[in-house]
Amino acid sequence: MIPYYGIDAGSDSFSQGNDPSIRMQWYMTPFDIEITDRLLATTRSVRRRLDFDRPMDPDVLRDCVGLASYAPNASNAQDWRWVIVTDPEQRAAIAELYREGIVPPMQELLERRRADGDDAGVRHSEAVLYLAERFHEVPALVIPCIRGELDPDLHLAWTASLFGSILPAVWSFQLALHSRGLASTFTTAHLLAADEVAALLDIPDGYLQTCLIPVAYLLGDDLKPPARKDPDEIIAWNRWA
Known about the structure:
Helix content is 41%, strand content 16%. By secondary structure, it is α+β, with helices and mostly antiparallel strands. Strands 4, 5, 6, 7, 8 and 9 form a six-stranded antiparallel β-sheet that branches. It has a three-stranded antiparallel β-sheet with strand order 1-2-3, with no helix packed on it. The longest helix has 29 residues, at 88-116.
């Protein structure tokens, strides 16, 4: 189990929240850049290599959520809640809603990509449809929620602050999963039926579902970095160019 940290009363130092007598030692240890860079470069969406048969260890998920909770969030309010669904009947019900939202548009996109000769796009669409077909078999479905409401009359800054208080934690959660041999992917199609999912899982009013992360152990060897543009293609120094 990972340690959790908080400030000692009357002290500027950190201590382990689950054992106040032990001082936090590893926060001063230099990072192994090669390892951290590999983790950052190879944590990616996984749909075809999820182990549907290996049981999920609740303690591993708990530790990953614990690590995710160190992510920055507005005013350090920590207004997030993580709904972890492992019950087979609940997973099946969510999977059906997910399929209703993703399969029709993705099937249409697949046909267009095939007609256009877009091989990479075809592979992506087929992977999405493969996961949708087997969504009910994923051992754990994780729905990160944030307290707040979307209001079209609010300035963009407030909406950005709301999602900025949960999405960094979601990515930290996925990094923590990968470092422990698990795989995941960021999905949003279930939000097309957010009210039905909220009713199914007793998510109260005032909390927004932000995404759904299917989680399973990774099949096969570690992942390779995906193709990405060179930084010089996407950086604009000082002004847009």
